[in-house]
Amino acid sequence: ELSNNASLNAKFLTLNANNVLNFKDNSNATIDNLVFKGVSDLSKIKLNDSSKFEVKESFTFDNSTFDLSKLSSTAGLKLPTEYNLYAFNGSTITTTNEFKNTKENAKFVLDNNSTFKATNDVNFKSAKVSVQSGASFTAKSLNFTENANISLADRATLTLGNALSSKDLTLTLKNESKFTVNTLTASGVFDLIGDENSNASITTLNLNNVKDTKIGENVSITTLNLDKSTARFNTLGNIQKAELKNSSNLHFNELDLNTKGLNLTSDATSKAHIKNLIYDASNGTNIAPNSNLVVSELFKLDNVGTNLGKAQDTNREQEDKLNKDL
Question: Would residue 90 be called left, alpha or beta, if left means φ above 0 and alpha means ψ between -120 and 50 degrees?
Fold first, then answer.
C-alpha cells in the first residue's frame, strides 16, 4: 500500500493471487516490466482518483486471464504505446478494442498453450511475433506499417479473418503449425517458409514490388497478384487465377493445361517462366493462357490444329491465338 504522496519505481513487479496493490492520496508507481502470475482480474490493482500507476516497457502474463480492453480503461492506470507482450503457461488474452503498438521491433510472444484473441484489428509498427507450443493468435486483421517476422512452431496457429499486411514480411511455420488468412499483402521482401508438417491457407496473395521470393511447402493460394514482383513456386498447387503486371515474373516447374484450369494473364512487360508446358487441344476444356510464356525445358503440344474446331468456331483462330500466347 502506498499513500501520502509516496512513490514506487521498479524494474520488475510481479502480481500474483496473493498480492494487492493499493494506491491512494496522490501516491504513484512507475514500473518498467509488469508481470501477472495466476491473476484473472484487475482487483489486484486499486487506485483512487488522485493516484497514478504507469507501465513503461512490457507486460507478461503467466497462467493469467486478461481483457486488455478493461486494462486500458482503468482510471489512473497509464499504459505504454510502445511495449513488449509475453503470455505463458495457458494464459488467455483478449481485447475488443483495436490493438495498437507503435514500438519499433516489438516482441509479441505466445507460448505453451496461451491464446490471444482480438475481435478487431491488431496494428504494429514493426515486430517479431512468436507463437509456439500449442499457442494460438486470432484477430480480424494483422497489420505492420514497416517490417514483420512471424514464427509459428510446435502446433501453433495464426488465424486472421480478413488480412495480413506488411512491407518486409518473413513467415515461418514448423512442426504442425497452421496459418490461415483471406488476403495477404506484402511489399519489399516476402518469404513464406513452411515444413512438410505445417500448412498455410491464403485466399488472395498480393505481392507489390517484391524482388524475389520462394514459397515453401504446403501453401495453398487461390488467387495470385504480382505487381513489379517476382515469385517462385515448385508447384502451382491450388492457384486458380494469376495476374502479372508492371514487369512481374512468375516461375514454376510445370503447367499441364489438360488437368489444370488456370486463368493466367499478364501485361506486355510481364512473363510466366515454365519449365514444362503440356497442352492437348483435343481436351477441349482448358485453353492457352492469355500471357507471355517462357518455356525452358519441355514444350509438348498434342492435336493442335486438328481438333480445335470442336471447341472453337475455326481451327485457325484458336491456333493463331495459341501460337501468339505461347
Answer: left
Distance between CA atoms of residues 83 and 98, nearest Å: 15
- Residue the block writes with cell 512438410: 196
CA 263/CA 258 separation, integer angstroms:
13
72 DSSP 8-state letter: H
Q: In the block, which residue shows the cell 497462467?
A: 63
- The total of other beta-carbon atoms located within 10 Å of residue 183's CB is 17
Compute CA 83 distance to the chain's CA centroid, rounded to the nearest angstrom.
Answer: 20
Specify the pLDDT at position 45. Answer: 75
| Angle, CA 32 vertex, CA 169 and CA 112 arms, to 5° | 55
Which DSSP symbol is given to 292?
A: -
Residue 169 carries which side chain, given as an amino acid letter? L
* Residue type (1 letter), 148: A
Per-residue pLDDT reduced to its tens digit, 270-325? 999 998 888 777 765 555 567 788 888 877 777 765 443 333 343 445 445 445 55
148: region left, alpha or beta (phi > 0 left; psi from -120 to 50 alpha) = beta
What's the farthest any 2 CA atoms get from each other in the chain? Answer: 97
The pLDDT tens digits of the residues spanning 155-201 come to: 999 999 999 999 999 999 999 999 999 999 999 899 999 898 999 99
Polymer length of the chain: 326
How many Cα atoms sit within 13 Å of 94 on the Cβ side? 9
How many Cβ atoms sit within 10 Å of the Cβ of residue 201? 16
Per-residue b or e along 299-311, where b marks 16 or more CB atoms closer than 10 Å to that residue's CB = eebeebeebbeee
Q: What angle do CA 207, 145, 270 make, to 5 degrees?
A: 15
